[in-house]
């Protein structure tokens, strides 16, 4: 990526009830906050309807803000089989939405995300929210799900920037 | 539903690796087999790519055969959290595909499906396959995942036919 180019990254924290989203713009090492929020589905609706709500609302956000990357946290340890099943449905909706909109979809572990944002892997929800506020220069910490979504977007940006630096170093050494 | 009207039902047995599908046509109490098969995803591909493969292939099947209903089995007991998460992703893909194509999406428990097809809830995979062969007058039992998909489609047809009969009885009594 050349220094003048900017990339819009959409981070997602999926859930059948609440799906957090966070948009940032990366230009070189600089990150700019664009938007964040939470898609809330109708708790009285059937599961297929709720999955479509997630899909449609994320599609609208993608159309409006035109990100080129979607970053989502991977799940290694779910509480139990029933909550894992629910989470799987919501994640599936979000991932498909990104794929069908032609975005590059990347996944990061919770450890990678927390390390990228707070500096260590066992950070609390509140620490993530506070660090997001500082890193993106926000007037106040974002809502919990939106903060997690912004965190995975930042994680993608950092890993992308790191890859760029490694490639540039390799190029210089090759000369 | 009037006796002359026919309904095409698409049954789905979702999985990240193999998703069974089965199409039947219901006309009154008669069921006719239309098509069955298995969508197999690339085992070396990343999860988002595999979810899109399921979505795209099911979309093609819906376009080709024009069902009006999608029936999918609900999951109450997954083996463990990790397999539940995987299954959730695949189910999410299938349900979304049905919703986005404008189909009525219905869900049935494994108990309902086996009871509708074999007559009791603890039937084996082989018993389901054999009963599907008999009920749909097929030359040989369908592949396991396709048989499960046809079974949930038949379950929908039976519950639909039962609802019709109940409605007709209520109408006659009301006269």
Brief overview, please?
The structure is a homodimer of 175-residue chains. By secondary structure, chain A is α/β, with parallel strands linked by helices.
Would you give an account of this structure?
Two copies of one chain form a homodimer. With 175 residues, chain A is an alpha/beta fold. Chain A has a single domain (6-172), classed as Ribonuclease H-like superfamily/Ribonuclease H (Nucleotidyltransferase, domain 5), CATH 3.30.420. Chain A has five helices and five strands, in the order E-E-E-H-E-H-E-H-H-H. A five-stranded mixed β-sheet of chain A has the order 3-2-1-4-5. In chain A, helix 1 (47-65) runs parallel beside helix 2, helix 3 (110-117) packs across helix 5 (144-174) and helix 4 crosses helix 5 (144-174). The radius of gyration of chain A is 16 Å and the shape is globular.
**What is the global morphology of chain A?**
globular
Order of SSEs of chain A: EEEHEHEHHH
CATH topology of chain A: Nucleotidyltransferase, domain 5
Indicate the proportion of strand residues of chain A: 15-25%
Mean pLDDT, all residues of chain A: 90
What structural class do helix, strand and pairing data of chain A support?
Answer: alpha/beta
Q: What's the CATH architecture name of chain A?
A: 2-Layer Sandwich
Trace the largest sheet of chain A across and list its strands: 3-2-1-4-5
Q: How many strands, what sense, and barrel or not for the largest sheet of chain A?
A: 5 strands, mixed
How many individual domains of chain A?
1
What is the subunit organization of this protein? homodimer
> Helical proportion of chain A?
40-55%
Q: Report the span from N to C terminus of chain A.
A: 19 Å
Low-confidence stretches of chain A: none
User: What is the β-strand count of chain A?
Assistant: 5
Most extensive protein-chain contact, per-chain counts: A-B, 32 and 32 residues
Enumerate how many helices of chain A there are, as a single number: 5
Q: Can you say what the CATH homologous superfamily of chain A is?
A: Ribonuclease H-like superfamily/Ribonuclease H
CATH C-level class of chain A is Alpha Beta
Evaluate the radius of gyration of chain A.
16 Å
């Amino acid at each position: 990526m050349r220094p003048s180019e900017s990339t819009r990254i959409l981070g997602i924290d999926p859930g059948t009830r609440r799906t957090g989203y966070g948009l940032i713009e990366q230009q070189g090492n600089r990150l700019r906050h664009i938007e964040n929020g939470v898609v809330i589905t109708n708790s009285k609706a059937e599961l297929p309807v709720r999955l479509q709500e997630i899909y449609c609302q994320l599609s609208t956000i993608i159309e409006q803000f035109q990100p080129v990357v979607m970053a989502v946290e991977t799940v290694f340890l779910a509480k139990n089989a029933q909550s894992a099943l629910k989470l799987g449905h919501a994640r599936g909706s979000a991932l498909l939405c990104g794929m069908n909109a032609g975005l590059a979809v990347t996944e990061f572990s919770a450890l990678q995300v927390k390390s990228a944002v707070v500096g260590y892997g066992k950070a609390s929800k509140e620490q993530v929210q506070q660090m997001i506020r500082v890193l993106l220069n926000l007037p106040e910490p974002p809502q919990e799900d939106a903060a997690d979504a912004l965190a995975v977007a930042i994680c993608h940006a950092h890993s992308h920037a790191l890859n760029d630096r490694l490639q540039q170093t390799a190029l210089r050494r090759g000369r």
